[in-house]
Write a structure and sequence with these properties.
The chain is α+β, with helices and mostly antiparallel strands. The protein is built from four helices and two strands. It has two domains: about 40 residues, no CATH class; about 70 residues. It has a two-stranded antiparallel ribbon. A hairpin with a 2-residue loop joins strand 1 and strand 2. Helix 1 runs antiparallel to helix 2, helix 2 packs antiparallel against helix 3 and helix 3 crosses helix 4.
Amino acid sequence: MVCEHKSYGEIVWLPFQYNGLDKGLKAHPCCSKCGLVKNVSSDRPKPIGHYLNILGSLAKAHSISNVQIRLIARDLNCLEDPYGFDRHQQNEIFKETILKFTKISEKIIENTLSASY
């Protein structure tokens, strides 16, 4: 069963860096149910809608069928967890999922992702 991540004021103090330099400790909320720490870095995860919009533009440009779109969207549901991923991890999962269901080159996917920021 998937945790619905609730943070009720529980804070974990963890080290953080800024521009590659250690800057001490910073408060990070954590899930009171499973204990997973929320990402509070500048590399915050994007909402799933961001990736579905990119999927839509790829579908128009590269003739992805409706069935492929549904399968990809189903697999991308895991990206909705702001506690479990950072943006880089989301991009990697998105790229792997597109490659799993289509024959679009990895370079095209990376270019589309980088153009979306």
